Records
---
Amino acid sequence: MSLLEVKNLQVAYGGIQAVKGIDFHIDQGELVTLIGANGAGKTTTLKTLIGMVKPSGGSITYDGKLNGTIPSYDYVRHGLVMVPEGRGIFSKLTVEENLQMGAYYRNDKAAIQSEIERVYELFPRLKERYKQLAGTLSGGEQQMVAMGRAMLSKPKLLLLDEPSMGLAPIIVEKIFEIIQMIAKEGVTMLLVEQNAKLALEVSQRGYVMESGRITMGGPARELLDDERVRNAYLGE
Ligand code: ATP
């Protein structure tokens, strides 16, 4: 059984259908990318997966549980964790306090501390700045905090919404390296990205979303070679 199974999912904002009946799945251990133009419905899809937005139809089964069975405040404890677009860090807290917030529901203090050390190994920049208020960090550093904080939640399925947004190319590369490292540690991931080329290069599979529908899906390698994808999303 897939870790995540989405069937005929529909989402409407008032009279506007943002998601028009999509089907997709993510298997344990997979890294899957969802690409699509602005307004295609990608963020809405992620928000619906974590219960921030209520679907108007269809079903979401995560880890064998149907949507509605886990209260939305409890998704993190069940391992479904999202790093939102714009990072969603606590700007008035320090780097280290932000990381600790990721573990707010855990009591295994020693393990938490060693995982914070592990995040500092992945992101030495954060170690240097552990006492700095997160709101004063650069965009790339804030993205690192957001990803580090998500790691402290011990995710089973990590949803990343546009992690490369607004970052310099060199930082984008670093963020993608980290995404691959997290994947190697066995975390299943759904990545939404404007940077379709990089995202597909690190993924096993991908889906293309257009105007609320999934119009293509398959191995990332095939999408990278597909002429329609190349023209529309890879700038070729
Ligand atoms: P982007 O890449 O620009 O973030 P996206 O694919 O993530 O785009 P969504 O943010 O999911 O797209 O938006 C899908 C559609 O739903 C858009 O037309 C958007 O204007 C609309 N929409 C999103 N949030 C709301 C809301 N809270 N109320 C009304 N309409 C909304």
---
Amino acid sequence: MYTQALDIHPQLATPLVATEDAHKQTHFEETINHEGKIEPRDWMPAHYRKTLVRQISQHAHSEIVGMLPEGNWISRAPSLKRKAILIAKVQDEAGHGLYLYSAAETLGTSRDQMLEALHTGRAKYSSIFNYPTLTWADVGVIGWLVDGAAIMNQIPLCRCSYGPYARAMVRICKEESFHQRQGFESLMVMMQGTPEQQAMVQDAVNRWWWKCLAMFGPPDSDSPNSEQSKRWGIKRISNDDLRQSFIDATVPQAKVLGVSLPDPDLKWNEERQHHDYGAIDWDEFWATVNGKGPCNKERLATRVKAWEDGAWVREAALVHANKQKARQSKEAA
Ligand code: FAQ
């Protein structure tokens, strides 16, 4: 999304060595080492800033694009109750995107720059949102598994060393937790229904399981950003460790639900005290991340259209704000 895409303010992008004041660097490192928070006004290395803009803007884009697969089902929800819950959930995701764009803006990159990177295909967003939602069971499975994976990844981000991101994550995690529970409850109801409903849930689990495991990112051995992000207290737990925790937490939930997870190699390993699991298709993951997933084109086209259709709202809001400003300065004069 970002490394290759985002411009940051030229002053902020000046090479570290050229601008660095040793005292500020020491203070930055001490703050990180003592689990303090770095705030927008604080000095920070250019690479720390760039890494945060990269991750936070990717995260924001994921929330906004993530509204689309479930949004497709708002008009087809099976009852008024389910429709109301789904509208609230999708609206929450929009809110998460907005907190995150705001957090990224505190680092000196404008929202317009971030959105431009998304709309031109230079920005990344989570691979998981490039798959279709074929049945109503997919909506429940997104809540249970996709939100479940998102929470597992996001709880440690509440302790991120960058204050605005950490604080945004506290609220986001509370809402994601509700999302996960509503997904599980919705599937529970379907699993107590007809054999057709049960089959629908199993089919959705089969299609989403592996994609959710890939959501945590490449294996640690193939994760170029992890080491530095962990040193800076941005990332607290590695991709593989989070993936393992998600699997260990989800297996018993699948049992309660009465569905099987589509992995013949999935079994408890007494020695490791974790579940072993089969091989993830990383070629498919990278193809999806690089724009060749089943819904990449559709998702991007929908976002671009929404941006273009909303131009008049942005223009009207600006004109209104300018009028108010002019009125206020006239009154003050
Ligand atoms: N998809 O070196 P690493 C949600 C990229 S929110 C696409 O390991 P890093 C809520 C990565 O960017 C879901 N790309 O990278 C919801 C990097 O590329 P770059 C989103 C991926 O940053 C629920 C390259 O691979 N959550 O679901 C993915 O240390 C339901 C190498 O990887 C967040 O964004 C992927 N899955 O770790 C909404 C959480 N994985 O930038 C609606 C915050 C990796 O060098 C409905 N982000 N890549 O060109 C993070 O925790 C991290 O950024 C990771 C990746 C863990 C995603």
